[in-house]
TrEMBL record, chain A:
Residues 5-81 form the 2Fe-2S ferredoxin-type domain. The keyword Metal-binding applies. It comes from Ancylobacter defluvii. Keywords: 2Fe-2S, Iron, Iron-sulfur, Metal-binding, Oxidoreductase. It holds the Pfam family Fer2. This is Oxidoreductase. GO terms for molecular function: 2 iron, 2 sulfur cluster binding; metal ion binding; oxidoreductase activity.
Automatic annotation (TrEMBL), chain B:
GO terms for molecular function: FAD binding; oxidoreductase activity. This is Molybdopterin dehydrogenase. InterPro entries: CO_DH_flav_C, CO_DH_flav_C_dom_sf, Diverse_Substr_Oxidored, FAD-bd_PCMH, FAD-bd_PCMH-like_sf, FAD-bd_PCMH_sub1, FAD-bd_PCMH_sub2, Mopterin_DH_FAD-bd. Residues 1-177 form the FAD-binding PCMH-type domain. It comes from Ancylobacter defluvii. The keyword Flavoprotein applies.
Length: 170, 290
């Protein structure tokens, strides 16, 4: 009875039907079955935040949900948010402020930032740090990440649209 | 770090869920938010043959006030404790504690029912059930019953839930204007499980304490009331002397176990510090209101 089950879900705007083994986490499904490797896996127990995705518009850990549980849900990964340019301003600010070094934590950081700014338009630095409490970064020391998120919060509140991210900022 | 294979069932009703559990002859687990269960499965601390996903059972949802009680369906998420206007008004201790529970993304999935059913002594919401004098609604093959929080938490991870029973809802007496409450905890880092935490609800119709509920987390095998500290406050004005008496009485209430993280004496000390801090905060609130 632990045979694969048919599951229909939406990933980055596309509705997909797959046969999925119940024990496969959403993180493994995205990475292995769909090749969406922007969702990283570190601890696989909810501690590091590298695997965050949007599920029905709010951040969740893809390592803490089985893909079969996501049947009927609407998932957005960092690839989807990049393609739609929803996080382009965050990506630009991270780039400009050197808020990433190895980049392993970055997809999770972007999802947390996007979730935070959807709830609180201009969070304080303390609120930003609090929101990042479940995202580990072993490189930057967090200061630049807080700066980048703060910058974008102010820009968005001032009504500046997210410019599309390009490799070389103009 | 991967879960053992299991079969997955998504019932639509409580009756279907109970039947699916009975059919598995004990080798099954309910899953709600999965935020505690999935790490346990990944570490293979648990390996049930069947997972019954209760996340889509409508009867386990909903937040409503009925006859002086706030009813929170088991599937109410941590984030709703944080944000929901009815919870802020009628169960302010839950709203005060919610920001200390895990991290935002975990709060988006974790459920109050899951947290209370698991009864981790280091968790915030189970202790708040004691501080709010909540009742826990349980449904099983025999029907439905309501158990007061004081009788629900029995021993380490052991509750009044019998195998196969579901926690259906939490019932909380709505907060009254003459009640004041406070919550805080001491943790090494924000979002980590606390070294000690405490929620207090004082009923003060005039300037004296008529009723006191003081509940601690992370000080023993279950969330714990502090009856001696509570008794030290009854009938008293909330002044420095009463606060000192309550702090001193804590030694009779708490006997923190040896756990390798911090020595029992230090945990008791931290509990005293925290109790003094919270009662002081309430004292200030009362002074401001006067
Ligand atoms: C990194 C991390 C940090 C965390 N930090 C904290 C913290 O600081 N404080 C804190 O309190 N918690 C913390 N948690 C735990 C989190 O709050 C869990 O969500 C919560 O304890 C369980 O709720 P759940 O809905 O996810 O339950 P699940 O994981 O789905 O279930 C937990 C257990 O309860 C049972 N169960 C669930 N619902 C019911 C029901 N309705 N009836 C009967 N049985 C049921 C399940 O069978 C299982 O045994 C943390 C988790 C992680 C991963
Ligand atoms: S991989 Fe999911 S939180 Fe670390
Ligand atoms: S940039 Fe390396 S972990 Fe954050």
């Amino acid at each position: 009875m632990s045979a694969p089950l048919p599951v229909t879900l939406t990933v980055n705007g596309e509705t997909l039907s797959h046969l999925i083994e119940p024990r496969e986490t959403l993180a493994d499904f995205l990475r292995r079955d769909l090749g969406l490797t922007g969702t990283h896996t570190g601890c696989e127990m909810g501690v590091c935040g590298a695997c965050l995705v949007m599920l029905d518009g709010v951040p969740v850990h893809a390592c803490l949900i089985f893909a079969v549980q996501a049947a009927g849900a609407d998932i957005a990964t960092v690839e989807g948010l990049t393609e739609s340019a929803a996080v382009a301003d965050l990506q630009r600010a991270f780039h400009e402020r050197n808020a990433l070094q190895c980049g392993f934590c970055t997809p999770g950081m972007l999802i947390t930032a996007q979730g935070l700014l959807a709830r609180t338009s201009v969070p304080s630095r303390a609120e930003i740090r609090d929101a990042l409490s479940g995202n580990y970064c072993r490189c930057t020391g967090y200061e630049a990440i807080v700066d980048a998120i703060e910058t974008v919060a102010h820009k968005r509140a001032a009504g500046e649209a997210a410019p599309r991210f390009t490799e070389e900022p103009a | 770090m991967k879960a053992r294979a299991f079969d997955y069932i998504r019932p639509a009703t409580v009756a279907e869920a109970l039947a699916a559990f009975a059919e598995a002859e004990g080798d099954a687990s309910y899953i709600a938010g999965g935020q505690s269960l999935i790490p346990a499965l990944a570490l293979r601390l648990q390996a049930p043959a069947r997972l019954i996903d209760i996340g889509h059972i409508a009867a386990l949802r909903g937040i409503a006030v009925e006859d002086g009680w706030l009813r929170l369906g088991a599937l109410t998420r941590h984030v709703e404790a944080h944000d929901h206007p009815l919870i802020a008004v009628h169960a302010p201790l839950l709203a005060l504690a919610a920001p200390y529970v895990a991290h935002p993304a975990i709060r988006n999935r974790g459920t109050l029912g899951g947290s209370v059913a698991l009864a981790d002594p280091a968790s915030e919401f189970p202790a708040m059930m004691l501080a709010m004098a909540a009742e826990i609604e349980i449904v099983g093959a025999e029907g439905t019953r309501r158990v007061p929080a004081d009788a629900f938490f029995q021993d380490l991870y052991q509750t009044a839930l019998e195998p196969g029973e579901l926690l259906a809802a939490l019932h909380i007496p709505v907060a009254r204007p003459e009640q004041r409450c406070a919550f805080d905890e001491i943790a090494r880092r924000r979002g980590d499980y606390a070294l000690v935490g405490c929620g207090i609800r004082l009923t003060m119709p005039r300037d004296r304490v008529e009723e006191a509920h003081i509940a601690f987390l992370a000080v023993g095998p279950t969330p714990m009331r502090a009856p001696a500290a509570e008794a030290a406050l009854i009938g008293a004005r909330l002044d420095a002397e009463a606060i000192r008496r309550a702090q001193a009485a804590l030694a009779r209430d708490l006997d923190p176990p040896e756990d390798g993280e911090v020595p029992p004496a230090m945990r008791l000390h931290l509990a005293r510090v925290l109790l003094g801090r919270l009662l002081g905060r309430l004292q200030d609130q009362i002074a401001e209101a006067a």
